[in-house]
Amino acid sequence: MTTEHGDTAEAYSLLLDDQLCFALYAASRAVTARYRPLLDELGLTYPQYLVMLVLWDRDSVSVRDIGTALQLESSTLSPLIKRLETAGLVLRQRRADDERSVTVSLTDEGRSLRNRARCVPTAIGDAMGLTPQQHEAAKDILRLLTTNVSRVG
Predict the structure, then answer these.
(1) How many CB atoms lie within 10 A of CB 92?
(2) Which of 48, 110, 126, 128 fits as disulfide partner to 44, beta carbons 3.0 to 4.6 Å?
(3) Is 94 in a helix, a strand, or coil?
């Protein structure tokens, strides 16, 4: 059997250390674990932090747009946003012109948390130990991988 790129199926090993998916999984777990103590200080989980990143960039966003940005379904996103609202960081409001659409906005407390979170990217970047060029190259490769894998099937 030949793959789309001309490789034979035999060229792909079943050894764990040869699996790109395992390298991605292990890296994801390690990076997420490095975030945990930093985010604990902010009172956020990693998925909540991602929602806050979108809101810190845009201040007020529909749940649908947050889901698109984070590649998450609303069924996954809604509980995250409810917990952020309970914590006093965001407000949810149904749009008057479309009751099905919910807009999420930062509260003053949510805006002020941004200043406390400014150290997080630097701490994670330092932990990764990549040069700026390696950092950009890694993001580019991972985005390409996501695009390619998402369109297959």
Answers:
(1) 14
(2) 48
(3) strand
Hey, what domains does the chain have and what are their CATH numbers?
A: 15-122 (1.10.10.10)
Structure tokens at 17: 């250390």
* Nearest Cα residue to 116 out of 59, 43, 34: 43
Q: Would you call 124 helix, strand, or coil by DSSP? A: helix
Phi, psi of 85 (to 5 degrees): -70, -45
* Ranges 8-22, 45-59, 134-148: which has the least confidence: 8-22
Amino acid at 150: S
| Contact present, 60 and 106 (Cβ < 8 Å) | yes
- Type of residue numbered 152: V
Per-residue model confidence (pLDDT) at position 96: 73
- Estimate the share of the chain in helix, then strand, then coil, as percent rounded to the nearest 5: 65, 15, 20
